[in-house]
Amino acid sequence: MNKVVILFLTFLLSNSISAQESRYNIDNSAKLILSSSKLKNDIEISSSLNSSEKISIRWKAMNYNIVLLNSKNEEYIKSFDDEKSNIVDIYEYDFDKDNNKELIIINSLSEGYGKIYILRRNGLFVKECGTIDLGIGITIDNSIFKVFTGVRDYSQDYIYLDNKIWKLCELESNGY
Question: What is the pTM of this model?
Answer without folding.
Answer: 0.77
